[in-house]
Design the sequence.
């Protein structure tokens, strides 16, 4: 059984910062890409940023220069540092990871439970 546990969401004023964390645990052989998606009310889930094992990053244009994704492979953890937050960043943020588990040749996508980020004055 694999779990992704997120932390760090909350309420912040415009211009403020938050740091999200997501730790993977369980029976894990390998972790490949990790990252974050967000889903605002009434909208589809969309990519915020993802990072490969080697540190290559892809991110949405709307967050470039404001959000930074990083990972600690020794802790199976991915982070999202969110600066200069705007009201339009309000959403539920989900972490994901491509994980290969014992008995499986190919990795599968696993998702966290989601953490609410609200940007409001």
Sequence:
């Amino acid at each position: 059984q694999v779990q992704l546990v997120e932390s760090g969401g909350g309420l912040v004023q415009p211009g403020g910062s938050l740091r999200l964390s997501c730790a993977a645990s369980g029976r894990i052989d390998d972790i490949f890409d990790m990252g974050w998606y967000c889903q605002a009310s009434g909208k589809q889930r969309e990519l915020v940023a993802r990072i490969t094992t080697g540190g290559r990053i892809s991110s949405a244009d709307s967050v470039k220069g404001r959000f930074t994704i990083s990972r600690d492979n020794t802790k199976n953890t991915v982070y999202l540092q969110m600066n200069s937050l705007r009201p339009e960043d309000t959403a539920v943020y989900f972490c994901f990871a491509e994980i290969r588990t014992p008995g499986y040749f190919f990795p599968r996508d696993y998702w966290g439970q989601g953490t609410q980020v609200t940007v409001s004055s």
